[in-house]
């Protein structure tokens, strides 16, 4: 497969998608640990990944070397970490509270800074410190999990946002979106970070996503305005789609 090709798989329901997603995460984690001695992952927010996170601990807890995991977040809403809108809270409740990851290996996006810009700057520094790498770019993240919104956003990269042209920083502040809820300012990883990843796996469910998913998978110039279409990992890009979000002619797994 060409480096910028997408591998698309369609599933009958969220349970089947989540089962496959959890298995992929386990496989990529094993491979990363055997090749580089660690596994770095950026977790997705929203609702779709929750079942995948639960399955990682329910079915795979004992086969995962959690001590090698370094956990980041693809985006965060600027709300306290115990707020029900917090992506960290969702990941904590579904996965992190039940997985024996060393506490120093979990890197939430801070939301207690004075401004959202301060949070983004602090997170950019965290990524550079933990991942290491050269002076200009940190080392690639092994696996970035992402979702797609009905407006074509991914992480907190929204259509038309000036943050889409960021080329240097790996984390940026984003104004409260007007197209989706919750309408609170956010911090997001940027395209240089997402596109530098060794693996990107999208988890997509719900028929509200179908129009945008169909348009993106058809390709063409116009679809390039969607941030989700701009993400092509340096390594592998996989779209795992629940069937109500998928083009009708797509084959189920
Ligand atoms: C967020 C996200 C966002 C999400 C998509 C899909 O914080 O809102 O990270 O990009 O992944 O909106 O969300 P669902 O999985 O809830 O449909």
What does this 3D model show about the protein?
This protein is an alpha/beta fold and 253 residues long. It has one domain (3-245): Rossmann fold (3-Layer(aba) Sandwich). The chain has seven helices and nine strands; from the N terminus they run E-H-E-H-E-E-H-H-E-E-E-H-E-H-H-E. The protein has helices at residues 14-36, 50-60, 87-96, 116-131, 191-195, 210-218, 227-230, and strands spanning 6-11, 39-43, 69-73, 75-77, 143-146, 171-174, 186-189, 199-204, 236-242. Strands 1-9-8-5-2-3 form a six-stranded parallel beta sheet, sandwiched between helices. Helix 2 links the parallel strand 2 (39-43) and strand 3. Helix 2 packs parallel to helix 3 (87-96). The mean pLDDT is 95. The structure holds 6-phosphogluconic acid (6PG).
Radius of gyration computed on alpha carbons: 17 Å
Number of helical elements: 7
- Assembly status: single chain
Q: Largest sheet, if any? A: 6 strands, parallel
Principal-axis shape equals globular
The residue fraction in helices comes out at 25-40%
H/E series? EHEHEEHHEEEHEHHE
Number of strands: 9
**Residue runs with pLDDT of under 50 for 5 or more positions:** none
Bound molecules: 6-phosphogluconic acid
CATH class: Alpha Beta
Q: How many discrete structural domains?
A: 1
Strands of the biggest beta sheet: in what spatial order? 1-9-8-5-2-3
Average per-residue pLDDT, rounded, comes to 95
| CATH overall fold name | Rossmann fold
The secondary-structure class comes to alpha/beta
Name of the CATH architecture: 3-Layer(aba) Sandwich
Q: Termini separation (Å)?
A: 19 Å
Beta-strand share of residues: 15-25%
